[in-house]
Amino acid sequence: MRFSILMPSIASMVNRMRGGHDPSTGSGRAFSRAEQPTNDVIPSELQPARNLLIFFSQRTVVVFIVLICAYVFAAAQQPTLKQAYNGCFLVGAALNPSQFTGENARQAALIKAQFDTISPENVLKWERVHPQPDKYNFGPADQYVDFGQQNHMFIIGHTLIWHSQTPKWVFEDANGSPVSRKVLLKRMRDHIQTVVGRYKGRVNGWDVVNEVVADDGTLRQSPWMKIIGPDYIEKAFEYAHKADPKAQLYYNDYSLENEVKRKGALELVRKLKAKHVPITGVGLQDHVSLDWPTMQQINATIDDFDKLGMKVMITELDVDVLPWPTPQQTADVSLRVASNPQLNPYRDGLPDSAQQQLANRYADLFRTYASHCGLVTRVTFWGVNDGDSWKNGWPVPGRTNYPLLFDRNDQPKPAFNAVIEAAPKKP
Ligand code: G3I
After folding, report:
1. Nearest ligand 1 atom to alpha carbon 159
2. Which distant-in-sequence residues (6+ apart) come within 8 Å of 128 by Cβ?
3. Which of 103, 127, 211, 238 is labelled catalytic?
4. Which of 74, 200, 315, 381 has the smallest set of CB atoms within 10 Å of its CB?
């Protein structure tokens, strides 16, 4: 209202300055270019405004408007992650309850726009979904699966058999002594049948066994291994396949780019294949840093598992930008290192140079993954924004890390643009 009242008087003032007809009063007359008034007849208080008007001549204004429109159009046209890699692989993120219950509406919207596959960061782990022998807690997991279905996403179940986040009772009898192989196999089968069976036809792929190879390439000496023996792995796949014959079934692990560990993992997959165990793919977690692993190691790892007929997925991607505190590259969750200020250099923000390094690293990673389009079927980030990431607390507690594509306010970082630009160009 106020604006429409103001408009005629502005138009009138402008016209008066240009010496033309005043539409609001009907006064004045149209001047020919030759007879346009000079500055002398314009009141001195309007002189600066007239200069401005000349500066923003009609043509300049048109160019300005066109540029704004082009910018807005280009921003609207920028593809999302899932659009940029459509036809190459799915792009996903690991989610927590606030994101799939709608509590964090901004992140829920971001997730729906950017990703076409999701993983549960914690809600489907044994300790969460099956905390006591006769108690299953399916509430959060149901909400996770519902969210994925409502948004037509490829839904991952993470994880059935792991040495971590599995309650002690699973491995012990009433006296706290280790249970027998037979008892543990029965507990494993019941758990897998119950969990996979509940989501049959809805969860598309399961991390059946997680981190079963140790850093030296041998089978990890977990309670599963010690009590049941090495065939616990094939049993887990068989039980999962029986519970949902159509679900994809994966072995998921970290640091498979390291040659020694990879050799052991390849050996494991070869043996499973030879025994016709229903394994469909291998998940490379890719908790990486700015300089490890090399692209050559990543290429070799993808190729090696592809040659065994495995689907290959990048399942837990993040890039650590902070100083690495131990000689060994690992993602073993049991690692703990004491905090000190040198290990936490970016408390107040990531400097531009490091931001750029992160963007370059992400561009290299995605170009490498995309060079295996179709063999790599999915790339999933372990979290949505930097504030969500487990990397703020591991292996040094209380640090400020920047490992993902979105900042703590869910804004895309330069690394996001780098990933979009690294996508294969569509014909
Ligand atoms: O939710 C509870 C909270 O109620 C409690 O007050 C708090 C106190 O410690 O703990 C909270 O749970 C934590 C949970 O993350 C949610 O934040 C657990 O202690 C903590 O152990 C758990 O860490 C998870 C870790 O796996 C556990 O092993 C990380 O979120 C999760 O990102 C991480 O994910 C693993 C993958 O599953 C397998 N590959 C490696 C990857 C990174 O470690």
Report:
1. 37
2. 122, 137, 140, 141, 165
3. 211
4. 74
Alpha-carbon span 350 to 203, nearest angstrom = 37
Name the burial class of residue 75, with classes exposed (0-12), middle (13-18) and buried (19+) by CB atoms within 10 angstroms of its CB: exposed
Residues 329 and 297: their CA atoms lie apart, in Å, by 14
The per-residue pLDDT for 192 is 98
| C-beta separation of 210 from 159 below 8 A | yes
Cα–Cα distances in angstroms (integers) from residue 269 to residues 56, 156, 164, in the given order: 69, 20, 22
The secondary structure element, H or E, covering residue 380 is strand 376-381
Q: Which residues line ligand 1 (CB under 6 A)?
A: 121-122, 164-165, 210, 285, 316, 331, 333, 390
The predicted model scores a pTM of: 0.84
211 is an active site residue = yes
What does pLDDT average to over the chain?
Answer: 88
CA 367 to ligand 1 centroid distance, Å? 30
Distance 165 CA to ligand 1 centre (A): 8
Best substitution site from 122, 211, 380 to test ligand 1's pocket, by max atoms within 8 Å of Cβ? 122
Centre of ligand 1 from the C-alpha of residue 325, in Å? 20
From 11-20, 151-160, 238-247, the region with the lowest mean pLDDT: 11-20
Least confident of 12-21, 94-103, 153-162, 350-359: 12-21
Instruction: Supply the pLDDT for residue 348.
Output: 95
pLDDT at 75: 53
Closest CA to 280 of 289, 290, 272: 272
Question: What's the pLDDT band for 373 if we cut at 50, 70, 90?
Answer: very high
Query: 229: alpha, beta or left, given left = phi > 0 and alpha = psi -120 to 50?
Result: left
Q: In the prediction, which pLDDT does 332 show?
A: 79
- Calculate how far, in angstroms, residue 162's C-alpha sits from the geometric centre of ligand 1: 13
Nearest CA to ligand 1 atom 16: 122
Catalytic residue among 234, 238, 257, 316: 316
DSSP per-residue string spanning 265-324 = HHHHHHHHHHTT----EEEE--EEESSSS-HHHHHHHHHHHHHTT-EEEEEEEEEE-SPP
Q: Can 316 be counted among the known catalytic residues? A: yes
